Amino acid sequence: MFRAMMPPSTIAWSASGIRVLDQTRLPVEEVYLDLVTVDEVAEAIRALRVRGAPLIGVAAAMGLAAAALRAGGQGGGGAVGLESVRQDCATLRATRPTAVNLGWALDRMLARAERAVASGEALPPALRAEAQAIWDEDRAMCDRIGEAGLALVPDGATILTHCNAGALATSGKGTALAPVYAAVERGRRVSVIADETRPLLQGSRLTAWELGRAGVPCTVIADSMAASRLSRGGITAVLVGADRIAANGDTANKIGTYGLALAARAHGVPLYVAAPRSTFDPSTPHGSLIPIEQRAPEEMTRLGGTVTAPAGALVWNPAFDVTPVALITGFITDAGLFAPDRLMEWLRP
Amino acid sequence: MFRAMMPPSTIAWSASGIRVLDQTRLPVEEVYLDLVTVDEVAEAIRALRVRGAPLIGVAAAMGLAAAALRAGGQGGGGAVGLESVRQDCATLRATRPTAVNLGWALDRMLARAERAVASGEALPPALRAEAQAIWDEDRAMCDRIGEAGLALVPDGATILTHCNAGALATSGKGTALAPVYAAVERGRRVSVIADETRPLLQGSRLTAWELGRAGVPCTVIADSMAASRLSRGGITAVLVGADRIAANGDTANKIGTYGLALAARAHGVPLYVAAPRSTFDPSTPHGSLIPIEQRAPEEMTRLGGTVTAPAGALVWNPAFDVTPVALITGFITDAGLFAPDRLMEWLRP
Hints:
2 copies of one chain form a homodimer. By secondary structure, chain A is an alpha/beta fold. The first copy, chain A, contains 11 helices and 17 strands. Chain A has helices spanning 38-46, 53-73, 78-93, 100-118, 123-148, 178-185, 202-213, 226-231, 257-266, 298-301, 343-347; strands at residues 11-13, 18-21, 32-35, 158-161, 191-195, 218-221, 237-240, 244-246, 251-254, 271-274, 280-281, 302-303, 306-307, 314-315, 320-323, 330-333, 336-338. Chain A has a 7-stranded mixed sheet. Chain A has a 4-stranded mixed sheet with strand order 11-8-9-15, covered by helices on one side. In chain A, strand 4, helix 6 and strand 5 (191-195) form a beta-alpha-beta unit. In chain A, helix 2 (53-73) runs antiparallel to helix 3, helix 2 (53-73) runs antiparallel to helix 5 and helix 4 runs antiparallel to helix 5. Chain A is globular and about 65 Å long. Chain A starts with 10 loop residues before the first strand and ends with a helix. The mean pLDDT of chain A is 94. At the A-B interface, helix 7, strand 6, helix 8, helix 9 and strand 13 of A face helix 7, strand 6, helix 8, helix 9 and strand 13 of B.
């Protein structure tokens, strides 16, 4: 019964490329886009039609493979084919600078392309197989995160979350919401409080929508209400996703996560970051070295047809902030639940 | 030069009632409303056309006086007139439960009406004089708050504020922004960072608009960005207004103030609450006893023509939160700057 109520799948192969749910049209319309060229995939990622760190990686890999399949039909291959894959990787990599899964998926695709060329293997089927593997692993990763976090979501739990790190952010049952879905699958009664997540409202538009589909009660609050809500008690845990986790555990996630973490700490509510291994970036020693994407001021000065700030107002619009590891109770990963001081051990190559 | 750039006045007498700036139309249109009946004034307060704790008190007093003037013309007076004033007070008092200035202004108007009736004085001119006094005192109060907070806004200061506690919230130069305007009047270079203040965006719509009018540089951020911005340094102080201050200094202000106060404290940035004596409520011993207005869910599920949450989403929408006095560095009042531990002494009758 639960599975029938899951949100529709966010991504699939189409006849000539990939098919994705356009998340900018939610919660009003459920519109699917067929993306054929790498430029179309890049635009969809840049415009947040496809968003969520894990899903971006899957979409980039699948988009790259689909492009190679078409080019392969036109006789591409060998050194020429590899050069084209490199260019496509560069185009896709430039779309979002903070999410590390994107670079991880593209590195993996490029390495597979290089191996294929070196061994005289045809590029298109090799890339298609690698993208399919990334997609399959993403769904399995969500399931493992769900199991790893299950004990944090007991019967009667109320979970506070920020942005959307749910099914819509992945090709499976999500990261931060995976333990919620896993608990609901076992018959536990769980409710969620969703920060609306300004400026793009991924919490009220996406998290509330997918939880509604799954029959999980969800209450929307403004980001600024979280501290007050935490002060009233009854919150079991704060669960959030991540876009990049530095080697020391400092975590870049949607703007507002840091303020939420301060409020959770002030009220003794544990905060867990849920993310797959591909979100951890051991090459970045700590959070202050994570590049933070700045987005267009228009995201803050208009919403739909409504002007929300006077013409000419200055705007600061970072997409992410960094939560220091000291405010993080633990990490829910596809390899289990880790206390921050166990991270280094796990990440060591 | 500065005065010429001040925002237009928020309230005035009109031929048959009061004239107010409709703040729900900002920042796009500057529309003034002529309010004639007490019901019209009540609707304008309830719908936040007229908002800001001090301005609500002034508007209620002036609206009440205008109604009495019209009734007086039809022969109202004595016991009948007093009963009508009592009913009007009840109507206006019910519009916003949290702001204490409203009750304070209405109590004062009612006491004046009772004195007038007891001494055989005509009600309408007595009420008009009392409302005029409340209005005049409000402007003078703003000036005194500006002077009291002047030392907190040195040349080169960057002030972070939440909601709108500026000229638009009063009939003068504001409360939290009064020290900013006072500093600018003395030639100091000051810039302001304005939390947009969801759900009704008083920061991006109103604070950015009035500071733009006054030529003060203002950068709009989402409420959830404040913690990240504070972590980057360079913020001189956080200045906010208040809707009600309990006897112990706990302060009810626009939702989000509490989370902002936690973030300011985490970064060692002082937070000051600016408010006139009428916002202090010695009859409420501490913050948990302050009634918190809950507003309609539609404020969170739509913005203009845009649907921001799925149909049927649950919403929690408190208009205010309470910041414990432990997070407040000081109070900027019309009687000077007070450390929290000096409050009781000042408030003692």
